[in-house]
Design brief:
The complex is a heterodimer of chains A (369) and B (324).
Chain A: E1 9-19, E2 22-31, E3 37-44, E4 50-53, H1 62-70, H2 76-86, E5 91-96, E6 100-105, E7 118-122, E8 132-134, E9 146-153, E10 156-162, E11 169-174, E12 183-186, H3 188-191, E13 198-204, E14 212-217, E15 233-236, E16 242-246, E17 273-281, E18 284-291, E19 314-319, E20 325-328, E21 340-345, E22 350-357, E23 364-367
Chain B: E1 7-10, H1 17-25, E2 30-32, H2 44-50, H3 62-73, H4 78-90, H5 96-107, E3 111-114, H6 122-131, E4 136-141, H7 144-157, H8 167-185, E5 192-196, H9 197-202, H10 204-215, H11 221-227, H12 249-253, H13 283-291, H14 303-313
Parallel strand pairs in B: 1-3, 1-4, 2-3, 4-5
Helix pairs in contact in B: 3-4, 7-8
Classes of the chains: A mainly beta (369), B alpha/beta (324).
């Protein structure tokens, strides 16, 4: 039960880390009255039920806590300390494995791409080395064009750049390169321009399948709707190729692209929605879409989509094969919850992590396929 | 025989539709029409009645006359056009869709490409879709600044400039593209495609191959090669004296494909065709421009880049004048 004082606590699931048959849920609690922020860890079973567990390092930055849980043998906390020293402005996002860690610096509330830095630090070596900056010049960052995500998969670091006017871009470099150089892989929202303003979700596929699944978000919302505003799901392979999994057929510099699934943007519902999470596992690949409920802006070219504004009804889809996707019955979301941020597949189904009000609450929802 | 579905090119006027239509129409399986305007009036008689100076749409019938002459006789002369006039009068009670269907049969086994600018107007668009719900639809765009500037120049050439509020030009671009985006949303997957005209001119062969793949046309090199020569279209030059126009005059004056990067444009500068005050593009235009890919990232819309390029390379970027 939520008490009056509990209502000042906003809980947000920041990460869901597979652990045994279940997951570890990292939940950030913010007291909206005092501004105090705390991090809690919960151990949940395959259906999202469970209780609080001890955080291995309570002082870990949120952006690194999930990595520390995924790679307990790596010296993530030590690398985190080095990053904290090198990046007093804070960390927005991180990606890594047992040997290397990349961190995007910046205050999450300050939207200025030009001020962003990307640091790399070794985590698998006995001797700590100082974080090194990677040149972000090729990304042409500016006030409205900024890095919004990092994914390390298959030895490649993927850097996602959001641009509300031109559409997203993806850059890539070998994670173990002596001097990493970020090279463009996709740009201009994969030739869908502002209607693919950002990569809002990504998930590495299995080694057999290879590459990444990417989910997109369009321009920030507003009163003028024209064309198909639904988001897309794209497949980026480890080479230079990419395909539309669900989305708008179009001409591209890489040839005619048609959706492999035959499903149109937003899986056929052209409203202004974003792909909020993509998760893969034994039970399949799941995509979570959520509608926009934020403020309307007359000119959205300068405003990055705020994923917290995508807090409307949730729809879930499951891949039934390389080309087929099926609609799953929608869960009772958002209910009193809010924005979905993360999903993970367990042996029983998929667990969604979202926002919730109340202290000590684990804002997750289990969906059975 | 099952007739191949037609392709309709939809855009505001001055969006490169003449050259794109003529290019696609040169594919051996296609036939590119001039401006036949068959979906703006209920019947052929109404279209004839509209083809009057000042109060109507002067020249509205010319493209149809030329098209029928070419399809019926294989040649456009004063004599064949006169015979076509008689034939059209004998079928003046036909609807536009019925007449279009007759053109399809005449052109078979080739499929028709129609780029009549009048097709993109709201009522005509609905009429078009009712008649051809399974057709292919290609939404074509050109940068709003270049489109409006070209339309303003044409309006002044036609001595109608003083009757036109030149800020309407922006509204026309915005309204038309908004309607076309909404129209595309209602079509079946794969039935609608969007093309930036600037991309076509920069490197047309890959685009034409993709158009062939989209429409399930033969994409052999000979077919692509033919498509690179819109000047070979039977409507690439003025017709006989009794049917001179029926297509864009700028295209007919210079119909060859001029391949190259089009001079970049900007959304930011004042609208140069509005002379009595300083006006900029409005927010809806800028939003639609971003949706359509005019955002300053590849030189197609970057005034700063244009200026820098002009300074450093002596302005090598091509102008788009005359490409319509």
């Amino acid at each position: 039960m939520t008490t009056a004082s509990d209502e000042t606590i906003l809980s947000v699931v920041r990460d869901l880390v597979p652990a045994g048959d279940g997951v570890l849920a990292l939940v950030e609690e913010t007291d909206v009255d005092s501004g105090r922020i705390g991090l809690r860890l919960y151990r949940l079973d395959a259906r999202g039920e469970g209780g609080e567990a001890d955080l291995p390092d309570g002082g870990m930055p949120v952006a690194l806590a999930g990595l520390a849980l995924r790679f307990p043998e790596a010296a993530i906390p030590r690398a985190g300390a080095a990053l904290a020293k090198a990046a007093p402005e804070g960390l927005r996002a991180a990606a890594g494995d047992g040997t290397v860690l990349f961190a995007l610096t910046g205050d999450p509330d300050v939207h200025d791409g030009a001020a962003q830095r990307l640091l790399r630090v070794r985590t698998g070596t006995a001797r700590q080395t100082a974080p090194k900056a990677i040149d972000l010049g090729p990304l042409a960052l500016s006030g409205g064009r900024m890095v919004t995500g990092l994914v390390l998969a298959g030895g490649l670091l993927h850097v996602f750049v959001a641009d509300p006017a031109a559409g997203f871009a993806v850059f890539r470099t070998r994670a173990d390169a002596t001097k990493p150089v970020l090279a463009p892989v996709l740009d201009r929202g994969a030739q869908r321009f502002a209607l693919n303003a950002m990569i809002s979700a990504a998930s590495p596929l299995s080694e057999d399948a290879g590459g990444l699944l990417l989910g997109t978000a369009p321009l920030a919302g507003g009163p003028v709707q024209a064309g198909d505003w639904g988001p897309e799901i794209l497949h980026l392979d480890p080479g230079d190729g990419w395909e539309i999994v669900a989305g708008q057929p179009r001409f591209t510099p890489q040839g005619l692209k048609r959706p492999l699934s035959g499903r149109m943007p937003g899986f056929g519902q052209p409203g202004n929605a974003a792909v909020k999470a993509i998760a893969t596992g034994q039970a399949g690949t799941f995509a979570v879409l959520q509608d926009f409920l934020g403020e309307s802006l007359p000119d959205r070219r300068g405003a990055l989509p705020d994923l917290l504004d995508y807090m409307g009804p949730v729809r879930i889809f499951r891949a039934t094969g390389p080309a087929g996707w099926e609609d799953l019955p929608s869960p009772d979301l958002p209910g009193d919850a809010g924005s979905v941020g993360v999903a993970v597949v367990t042996g029983a189904g998929v667990i969604l992590g979202h926002e919730g009000v109340g202290a000590g609450r684990v804002p997750v929802t289990f969906v059975s396929p | 025989m099952t007739l191949r579905q037609p392709l309709f090119i939809l855009c505001p006027g001055r969006s490169f539709s003449s050259v794109v239509c003529a290019a696609i129409g040169q594919h051996p399986q296609m036939f590119g029409l001039p401006e036949v305007n068959l979906f703006i009036a209920p019947t052929v008689r109404d279209l004839m009645d509209a083809d009057i100076p000042f109060f109507g749409i002067p020249g509205a019938m010319t493209g149809l006359r030329r098209a029928v002459a070419e399809l019926m006789f294989g040649v456009q002369t004063e004599e064949t056009v006169n015979q076509v006039n008689d034939w059209l009068r004998g079928h003046e009670d036909w609807t536009g869709a019925r007449m279009f269907e007759e053109l399809r049969k005449m052109a078979a086994p080739r499929a028709l490409v129609d780029k009549s600018p009048t097709n993109s107007q709201g009522k005509a668009l609905r009429q078009l879709h009712r008649a051809y719900p399974d057709a292919w639809y290609l939404h074509l765009a050109r940068h709003p600044r270049a489109t409006c500037r070209s339309r303003a120049a044409a309006a002044y050439r036609n001595r109608r400039g003083r009757q036109m509020d030149t800020t309407d030009l922006e509204m026309l671009w915005t309204r038309r593209h908004r309607e076309l985006l909404d129209f595309g949303r209602g079509l079946a997957p794969g039935q609608y495609m969007y093309l930036r005209g600037e991309d076509f001119f920069e490197d047309p062969a890959p685009i034409l191959r993709q158009i062939c793949a989209w429409m399930d046309l033969d994409d052999a090199e000979a077919a692509i090669g033919a498509m690179l020569h819109p000047e070979d279209s039977p409507f690439a030059r003025p017709g006989p004296d009794n049917a001179k126009n029926g297509n864009n005059p700028g295209f007919m004056a210079n119909p060859a494909l001029r391949i190259g990067k089009i001079k970049p444009e900007t959304l930011d500068d004042p609208l140069e065709w509005v002379e009595d005050r300083v006006v900029h593009f409005g927010s809806e235009t800028r939003l639609l421009a971003a949706i359509l890919g005019y955002d300053g990232q590849d030189g197609a819309d970057d005034g700063r880049q244009a200026r820098q390029q002009g300074q450093s390379e002596g302005g090598k970027a091509m102008g788009a004048g005359g490409r319509t």
